[in-house]
Amino acid sequence: MRNYNATKRILVTGGAGFLGSHLCERLIADGHDVLCVDNFFTGNKRNVAHLLDHPRFELMRHDVTFPLYVEVNEIYNLACPASPVHYQYDPVQTTKTSVHGAINMLGLAKRVGAKILQASTSEVYGDPEVHPQPESYWGKVNPIGPRSCYDEGKRCAETLFFDYHRQHKLRIKVVRIFNTYGPRMHPNDGRVVSNFIMQALRGEDITIYGDGSQTRSFCYVDDLIEAMVRAMDTPDDFTGPVNIGNPGEFSMLALAEKVIALTGSQSKLAWRPLPADDPKQRRPDISLAREALKGWAPEVDLATGLDRTIAYFKGVAQPPIEPVISLRPAADVTRPVH
Ligand code: NAD
Ligand code: UDP
Ligand code: UDP
């Protein structure tokens, strides 16, 4: 039977997005009341449609750059476009979402005494010179490039979290998320996993940016959500930052070959220019997560996770097919297609 004393009122910002929708689902399953706040920039009501009739779920359209007055016990702050195509579409809004959004959510947490978790990113390490990346590494980030609105916005949000912690004694958790994939990724978000799978399913060329030797470490969404929930439940003296991700590291060429094999596609590889400031390598050191998150470790390997993601994308790859947005200079980028 459900323990009603353990029921918390939890706010998830960006809750209608890819990760946010899985998190809402998990928190509802754990017996909590969930308030999902989203401005639907890259997220979609469809992602939480199955939760709308649930008595403990509530959806609110709201932009976190504006103040929000609600009463909650915990806040997961995920609101922010995450794919380079989407966050570079309106870079000023991206920085505002990270910075003003963090200030508002921290102000809210301060007023109601809520515990607050920030969805930070491996992008705080930039194009790293230390490999794999431990939390103690301060990163190598270009402050004025096309990725900076996201990277520096997230770095500033971390600063705000730690200053509210030191100055106002807020209970904070900062998790640095490494590339995560799975069902409900936006099919046109331009991220490598969604791009490759959609291209393979449509029999189009698989677009390799640069020579394809750059690496990423891909975590399946269920593993990531488990780590986030565990991070929120750590003792009050644990603030992070803590890396969460899967240390399995793959080149983009290896990923393309895996996707072609798993889909049985006839697609060929096609080379495209490498976007500016694209990190050459990325792999999390997850020693701290293993220790602090009660022995957490990712369990889903890339082939299994890709299989599940391919099954999901088969459902959205049916005609009419929307064009995949390509990475272009900000002024020339069209609005994301839903
Ligand atoms: P996503 O784009 O699917 O989700 C982001 C959500 O935030 C969307 O629903 C979007 O509509 C919403 N949003 C954007 N701006 C908003 C605003 N101003 N007010 C309210 N809502 C707003 O991306 P995701 O992959 O689910 O990422 C979720 C969070 O995790 C982001 O903060 C992202 O930076 C972080 N993250 C994700 C990854 C990853 O690989 N998926 C890696 C590192 C960090
Ligand atoms: N805020 C909010 N909800 C609240 C409390 C505060 O959105 O319940 C916002 C408000 O816009 C405020 C910001 O959070 O400006 C920061 O709050 P804080 O108390 O830290 O500073 P203030 O600006 O109020 O002095
Ligand atoms: N990438 C690629 N082809 C694509 C999309 C992306 O080769 O169609 C590359 C991209 O240049 C980067 C890597 O894949 O090196 C991961 O890109 P993504 O946008 O998914 O994430 P991020 O760069 O933010 O880690």
Question: What keyword list fits this structure?
Answer:
disordered C terminus, single chain, binds nicotinamide-adenine-dinucleotide, binds uridine-5'-diphosphate, 338 residues, 7-stranded parallel beta sheet, globular, 13 strands, two-stranded parallel sheet, alpha/beta
How would you sum up this structure, described in words?
- α4 links the parallel β5 and β6.
- The strands form four sheets. A seven-stranded parallel sheet has the order 3-2-1-4-5-6-11, sandwiched between helices. Strands 7-10 form a two-stranded parallel ribbon.
- It is 34% helix and 16% strand.
- The N and C termini lie far apart (40 Å).
- The protein has helices at 18-29, 84-87, 91-112, 148-168, 192-202, 221-232, 252-263, 287-292, 302-316, and strands at residues 9-13, 33-38, 57-61, 74-77, 115-121, 172-177, 180-181, 206-209, 215-217, 219-220, 242-244, 249-251, 269-272.
- The longest helix is centred in the first third of the chain and has 22 residues, at 91-112.
- α5 packs parallel to α7 (252-263) and α5 (192-202) crosses α9 (302-316).
- The chain has 338 residues and is of the alpha/beta class.
- It binds nicotinamide-adenine-dinucleotide (NAD) and uridine-5'-diphosphate (UDP) (2 copies).
Give the total of beta strands. Answer: 13
Describe the largest sheet: 7 strands, parallel
Question: Could you estimate the helical fraction of the residues in percent?
Answer: 25-40%
Mean pLDDT: 93
Low-pLDDT parts are 319-338
Which overall shape is indicated by the principal axes computed on the Cα atoms? globular
The main sheet orders its strands as 3-2-1-4-5-6-11
Which class do the helix and strand fractions yield? alpha/beta
Distance between the termini: 40 Å
Question: Which kinds of small molecule does this entry bind, naming each only once?
Answer: nicotinamide-adenine-dinucleotide, uridine-5'-diphosphate
Radius of gyration from the CA trace? Answer: 19 Å
SSE ordering: EHEEEHHEHEEHEEEHEEHEHH
Total helical segments:
9
Determine the strand fraction and express it as a percent band: 15-25%
